[in-house]
Structure prediction request, 635 residues.
Amino acid sequence: MPPAAAFGTPPRTSHVQLSFDGKSVAWFDLGSVPQRIIVFDLVNNKDRRVFLCPDGTKLRDLEWADDDTLIFTASATLHEGANLRKYEVFRVFAAGLDSGKAHMLLGDDPDQSYLTGAELLAGHTTKPKTAIMSSMKFNSNASKMQTGSHITNDRKDSGWLAALFEVDTRTGKSRVIDQGSQLTRQWVIDVDGNSVARSEWDQKTHAFSVLAKRGLGWAAIYHREDNHPLTLYGLTADRKLIIAVGLDQDGRSKLLGLPLDGSPAQVLYEDPVRGITGVAMDRFDNHPIRVYSDGPSVQGHWLDSRLEQRFKALQTSIPGTNFDLAGQSADATSLVAAVSAPDRPEVYYLIDYKTHKADILSDAYPALADTKLGHVSEITYKARDGSDIPAYLTYPPGYSAGTALSMVVIPHGGPAARDYLEFDWLAQFVASRGFLVLQPQFRGSTGFGEKFRDAGRHEWGGLMQDDVTDGVKAMVEQHMAEPRHVCILGGSYGGYAALAGAAFTPALYACAISINGVSDLPKMLEYETEHSGQLSDAAQYWREDIGSPLDPKVVAASPARRAAPVTARILLIHSADDTVVPAEQSDNMAEALRVGGKSVTLIKLPGDDHWLSGAATRIQALKEIDAFLQANLPH
Prediction:
């Protein structure tokens, strides 16, 4: 049985990126302490540079700006104010391979010290050593004060406007090159780094528009008010179309082209049955190379014929695995492919088409390289209203068909998220301990169509929870799972679902485990409003997806206020520096259970965030889960 560290250590290789000239490859080692960036010289077969990140810093994204410069995003938890309010602050840095030093981009702009989440739009343009970034910048002329005739209750009253910056990757110094509005959501730039278009999204009114640059002004070329904004991916190489993904007029998501001249949107690609969920763009000329469709088995359709032929050949060489493009050189003579399967973590291969050789670069989880993991299958079951609910079943290694097992059901977080038919470190860890694992894709999940996603609105503790319950009952009825030998485990929204399962269907579960989970919906809504601001998109999202904190239905859907029926043993795990779901949510649940004389254990993980980014704390969490399951779930 592999130790918890084999699963809990974050990937030793991730975010693999090949340099433009194909002579170097860079990746994150997230399993080291501190985390580090490794740059490997493929010509001389040795490390070219290793960047150690400050302790407590978490690496998030990576790309090449040029063959001698990396751009990476990192975050850290900031404690601010007298009450030590916590924020996860994201910053973008450039690292010079010759100097071995990194510096923050936009660091010279005083407004950025108040902000987080500046977006890198282009790490390189036709202007050397230049990146393009977007962020917000305060403009006092745009800020509206409350008067006797005007009450400031709209985001449009804010003085914070979207801005586009040109940044020198050698110094981090910046200058504003364009300005949007308070509602600007995305920018579209050309290969020279000039702004071409921008989108506007008013979450309050559900109005979405795309504006094209016209000299010094802007002209609307696309508009809708159906609460389904498009996602913009960039500009085509001929600079005539904006590439976008979103719902078409028939209600199915497609790959769209928005002509800059304002003519009607074009459908560039559609699947006859499935909706399109995203598109991969070529990093050199920005043409779309692959689209991804929704459904239990996410399917990728190649739009680039050369890459399609190459990956078909790779798929034939190692059947039963998934191949994805991690990066390729500018001349397309070499590429990095990520190879994986649901029971096999990622292995990265360097493919050289000049020498016709394929070499293994690294394993994401080297401690699991020779380990037999659980088989994963895609299933559906019927919900009580007759709907088909997709799910994934992970069997313990060596499982014998026809044997009913103790089961752990793991609802995903979000809830506007999903699981995939791919390696899942948590599900495989639980399966390795001898348990059947069910991952239901309840309504409210993304990736199964907009109607499926929208069905989850205002259904915390309702329809979404019923779908999870019906999945457990289906497994018991099919003699896959032993009745009452079921535990429910989840993180974030999944942690809420675990507590809701114990509180609202107590006869179903022997135990429940919540990791950074929500327990009190009104308090969570109050926290989000205070933490992000009344007019923020985050606060608006919570109000629209959960409801009003004064709604009796919302109050009743809070497990911390419905702890009396709980009979299951409860394990609460919460990161002390969680800025998404505050640790008070687990504190409140623990107190409610203790007052009622229930069995509860509360574990606080020091110095970690909502996503369990740290190796030590993730391993600690798995060890606590293992011990709790062995003690409370017979198998």
Summary: Residues 145-153 have pLDDT under 50 and may be disordered. The chain has eleven helices and 35 strands. The first strand starts at residue 14 and ends at 18. The first helix runs from residue 4 to 8.
